[in-house]
Amino acid sequence: MIIKENFHVFNYIKKEEYSGSMDGMRYMLKKKETEEGTVLECIIWPEPNCYAKTPQENKQRREFEFSADGVNQAADWLNEQYVLQQSLWELSKKLC
């Protein structure tokens, strides 16, 4: 699980994509420009493949406000999806 008190990645995301993994679930946070303005895009997908090698249909996306609060909301969503889709992450670990 992501510990929000230690998850200070907003300044990093301003310049680069940030990626990580949690026991079978991979994730990426990145800055995204839309017609409405800048948002924080959060993407999750199952292991074993990297982002570029994972088919689009296997990726799940959600957008948040591009701010430190948005990063906290993304962390909550990541933790929620980790719990809700535990069987998917467990299966993906077995495929590695």
Description:
It is a single chain. With 96 residues, the protein is α+β, with helices and mostly antiparallel strands. 32% of the residues lie in helices and 32% in strands. It is built from three helices and four strands; from the N terminus they run αββββαα. The chain has helices spanning 10-13, 68-84, 86-95, and strands spanning 18-22, 25-34, 37-46, 60-65. A four-stranded antiparallel beta sheet has the order 1-2-3-4. The chain is globular. The relative contact order is 0.22. The model has no long low-confidence stretch (mean pLDDT 94).
Structural features:
96 residues; alpha+beta; 4-stranded antiparallel sheet; 3 helices; 4 strands; 32% strand; globular
The biggest sheet amounts to: 4 strands, antiparallel
Q: Give the strand order, joined by hyphens, for the main sheet.
A: 1-2-3-4
Nearest-angstrom radius of gyration? 13 Å
**Rough shape?**
globular
Structural class: alpha+beta
Low-confidence stretches: none
Helicity range of the residues?
25-40%
- Count the helices. How many? 3
Beta strand count: 4
The termini sit apart by 20 Å
Average pLDDT, all residues: 94
Q: How would you spell out the order of helices and strands?
A: HEEEEHH
Strand content: 25-35%
